[in-house]
Design goal:
Length: about 180
């Protein structure tokens, strides 16, 4: 009888631990643009990402030597499907973080001072916004940015959208999103 109680207690503790881990789970797949066929069969640096234009992945001046790949966008939108869709529940808050740096234009006359505006959205299957936040990236050195936003709708297979506003290029890496604790 005592062994049964201990077994039940251990099972309950294991379930509580799994539930806590699931709540802290990462919702973005391949947020660091580092997937390769060696890591996952058939994968590459753009796995789980989508865009109307080809997604450019670069290896020059990365966030760190442990994380050499990052994406570069201009006035485009990139989408991440998460792990077979991102489950979004109305009223739920989400913590978003990303590392960004502005990239200067090659021609001096094309260089723009200031900051790059990014619109961060959770979108449904028709790409209609369910939640939105904005980030203004400043400077040409890697910096981490954070945003918290609340969903005003629900969708079982939502996507994350990162919208680049304006023609200035920006480097994007370490994209992460979790349910707010």
């Amino acid at each position: 009888m005592i062994k049964c109680k201990h077994l039940c207690m251990m099972l309950l503790l294991a379930l509580c631990t799994l539930t806590a881990q699931a709540q802290e789970a990462e919702l973005i797949r391949n947020g660091d643009f580092e997937l390769t066929p060696r890591v996952e069969k058939g994968a590459n640096a753009t796995t789980a990402w989508d865009s109307r234009k080809p997604l450019v992945v670069v290896h020059v001046d990365p966030v760190s030597t442990d994380n050499p790949c990052y994406a570069v966008i201009c006035c485009d939108t990139i989408y991440n499907q998460g792990f077979d869709g991102i489950p979004v529940v109305e009223g739920t808050k989400y913590d978003f973080s990303v590392c960004l740096r502005n990239l200067p234009a090659l021609k001096e006359e094309d260089r723009v001072e200031g900051c790059k505006l990014l619109i961060i959205q959770l979108v449904d299957e028709q790409r209609q916004p369910l939640a939105e936040a904005t980030i203004r990236a400043k400077g040409n050195q890697w910096q981490q940015y954070h945003a918290v936003f609340t969903a005003h709708g629900s969708c079982a297979k939502a996507q994350l959208a990162i919208v680049g506003v304006g023609c200035q290029k920006i480097a994007i890496d370490k994209v992460s999103m979790k349910k707010h604790q």
